[in-house]
Write a sequence for this structure.
């Protein structure tokens, strides 16, 4: 029987964002986004989980050090102390930021990437599970011409 396990690492970063659509009136923005229409910041908490077979030689799915290196290089270094709207180039919701993070991690972690959770506050987060991550993987995979 193949032994499968999950490995999870948690990260934090500080960033600002603003939920505002330029093509909407102030009243529309206020009605949909409330207080988040104003420039504000979060102490984000990012939780990344990988899942895969335990390597018989190392006893690991993936070395914690390697997972931390990938997430730091691909995500944290690009978002920490930044204005998320400038990085994303689209509405900077937690959901859109999750997709942005997923697209940065998938090339490095591939099918090992199991879950991405992005906490904006202690009680509110957005997440991508295995199905959403596979959909991203399929949509960004190069087409094969036969």
């Amino acid at each position: 029987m193949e032994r499968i396990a999950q490995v999870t690492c948690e990260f934090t970063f500080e960033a600002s964002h603003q939920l505002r659509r330029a093509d909407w009136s102030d009243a529309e923005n206020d009605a949909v986004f409330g207080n988040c229409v104003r420039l504000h910041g979060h102490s984000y908490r990012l939780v990344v989980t990988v899942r895969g077979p335990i390597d018989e030689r190392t006893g690991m799915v993936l070395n914690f050090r390697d997972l931390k290196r990938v997430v730091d290089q691909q995500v944290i270094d690009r978002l920490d102390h930044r204005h998320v709207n400038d990085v994303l180039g689209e509405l900077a919701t937690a959901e859109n930021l999750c997709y942005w993070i997923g697209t940065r991690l998938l090339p490095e972690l591939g099918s090992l990437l199991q879950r991405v959770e992005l906490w904006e506050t202690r009680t509110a987060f957005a997440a991508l599970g295995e199905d959403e991550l596979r959909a991203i993987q399929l949509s960004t995979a190069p087409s094969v011409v036969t």
